[in-house]
Amino acid sequence: MSDLLKTTRVSRRQALAGLGAGTAAGLIASPSIILAQTPDAIRFGHLTPRTGFLGPLGEYGVMAVDLAVEEINAAGGVNGRKLEALKEDSVNPQTASTKAERMIERDKVTCILGEISSASCLTISQVAARNKTLFVNTGGNSDALRGESCNRYMFHVEHQNSMYVKSCGRSLMAQGLVKGKKWFSLTADYAFGHDLLKVAKRFMEANGGQFAADKLVPTDATDFSALLLEIRAAKPDLVISNLAGNQITNFLKQYSEFGLTFPVAGFGFDTALAWAAGKDNFSGIWPCVWHHLIDTPGTKAFVAAFTKKYGKPPENQAWATTWP
Q1: DSSP 3-state of 140
Q2: Measured distance CA(225)–CA(142) in Å, rounded
Q3: Torsion angle of alpha carbons 186, 189, 195, 196, nearest 10°?
Q4: pTM across the whole model
């Protein structure tokens, strides 16, 4: 029996070695972190929102998984074994937990990757820890996932909220939009938004700014007119988005329609949301973890393959899913 088939568990050292390989789909393909499964196929689970306010982002992750599996299998698979992806819409934290449990116990996946919602990441990671199964979080950004809620079976691809706030915040400070200024923030009412607001307030307090107001926004909200009227009346120095998914697209479109001219910035961002808003509606200062115009050989190859297959460039959720 080969060393690959004898492997029965994943150590932190082995997983880090696989992540460090840096190939387009190294996590999926690295023998150092693949568990024995069937003689013919290596099965892994992909969970991410495909409906709801994060659905448009999740679809990029799904497309990237399909592309990676297709390319690896066309090249002969991994040690002669094909990859098999089980893909599910995680929808919400409860559904994500149930589907993760089923993938591990019934479908015998070697690992789970994906997700965007920080709340769903938490429930998946709890299932993964109980079952001692690897979970690679490709899109959840909450600080808590890297701190108090982290465990030895969970690894992260994208940056965390503190990184985004500090990076964007330095730019805002350079433009004189922090010290002595009033911010009006809109925050997605779930784990990601709450965590992001906490980090943003800490940054403001440390750098001499203050909040004129902060409003929690339900994740299914599509009409921002009442909030935009409040912003107009408050006359803030800066409008901050702690929103997520389609919330950002809808807010930017309506902000432009209302003719508001207060500067805008955001601490959470995905490029597909800007594309959906349209170039005439998108403005401000936003953090960007990856972009399809980055001038490196790896990025160019990935963008070319993705664009050839789907007729459009990938965005950062696609990159995060295939980066490991």
Answers
A1: coil
A2: 28
A3: -20
A4: 0.86
**The tokens 């901050």 sit on which residue?**
240
DSSP letters for 85-128? EEEEE--SHHHHHHHHHHHHHTS--SEEEE---HHHHHHHHHHH
pLDDT digits (tens, 9 = 90+) for 37-79: 556 799 999 999 999 999 999 999 999 999 999 999 999 999 8
pLDDT in tens, 246-283: 999 999 999 999 999 999 999 999 999 999 999 999 99
Could you tell me the two tokens for 59?
Answer: 């679809």
Residue 102 scores a pLDDT above 80: yes
| CATH fold of 161-277 | Rossmann fold (3.40.50)
Residue type, 202: R
180 vs 72, 173, 215, CA distance in Å? Answer: 54, 11, 21
CA separation for the pair 112, 222 (Å, rounded): 31
CA pair distance 251, 193, nearest whole angstrom: 15
Contact 143, 116 (CB under 8 A): no
Q: Report residue 66: phi and psi, to 5°.
A: -60, -40
Residue 155: partners with Cβ closer than 8 Å, 6 or more residues away: 15, 19, 134, 135, 136, 137, 324
> How many other C-beta atoms lie within 10 A of the C-beta of residue 24?
19
Separation of alpha carbons 208 and 182, rounded Å: 10
Between vectors from CA 298 to CA 36 and to CA 311, what angle results, nearest 5°?
95
Amino acid identity for residue 110 in this structure: T
Whether 3-158+291-322 and 161-277 share one fold: the answer is: yes
Q: Report the pLDDT averaged over residues 305-316.
A: 97
The CATH superfamily assigned to 3-158+291-322 is Response regulator (3.40.50.2300)
Distance (Å, whole) CA 244 – CA 265: 13
Whether residue 214 has pLDDT greater than 80: yes
Give the span between the Cα atoms of 240 and 250, in whole angstroms. 15
The encoded tokens of residue 163 equal: 């990184």
- Domain map (residue ranges) of the chain: 3-158+291-322, 161-277
